[in-house]
Amino acid sequence: MDRLPPGFRFRPTDEELITHYLAHKVADAGFRTLVIGEVDLNKYEPWDLPLRAEMGEKEWYFFCVRGRKYPTGLRTNRATRTGYWKATGKDNAVYRGRSLVGMKKTLVFYRGRAPKGEKSNWVMHEYRLEGKCSLHHHHHLAKNEWVVCRVFHKIPASTKKPPVMIKAEAASPLPRPPLPTIHASASRINALDSIDVTCFSTLPAATFDGNLDDDSFAPAEPHRPPPLFALGGDDQQAAAGGSDHILALLGHTIWNDCY
């Protein structure tokens, strides 16, 4: 294809890098692709590699030939002008289904010279063919051992921004709102003072049927509620006897429980 489609992201798996790209490069050194560049990793520092890549934002891919440290040896030359790539851990096998197709090696870049180099955060994953497609079965390709590499800069955990913690300050309690002021006139207060609340006994009325004339049930001085209306001279005297009889009856049932 002449160019990549809009929004294209190159995020191949380990198996795809080996079977779809590295295998073609090993079989044909002239193989080219728009997503993987070709570079000599010994001539460039890792922070210069993003500018040499065909594409990538956080990861960059390259084809390169593993250089020999010695002409007659098998050790790989991984030194650059300012440092070197050092392998870490063991190689991991890459499978396609149940078939072994390659190996994955992890390397970290160190500034300076071994063994006193300073470790950096630049990491490289190097993929090589293994199994039936490896160079051990193609001796005519042994001088050009192609590999494909994924290079990226790892962000250390210490530089990641910690979550923002908001510490609650010891705040003084909020003042309570003032109670609403009740405005009442003097005449209304005097009217409330003159209201009598009637209290009824909870005892059954049959308790007092045979003891209405007993002086023990009558209060010494029964409280007389104010009259509901004023009576004239003769009417007041006529009603006096009836009101006394009614109050005598109420005194047994009402006022005895209230006082």
Automatic annotation (TrEMBL):
Transmembrane segments: none annotated. InterPro entries: NAC-dom. Residues 214-235 are annotated as: Disordered. Residues 4-154 form the NAC domain. The keyword Transcription regulation applies. One of its GO terms (molecular function) is DNA binding. Keywords: DNA-binding, Nucleus, Transcription, Transcription regulation. It comes from the Eukaryota. Pfam families: NAM (PF02365). One of its GO terms (biological process) is regulation of DNA-templated transcription. This is NAC domain-containing protein.
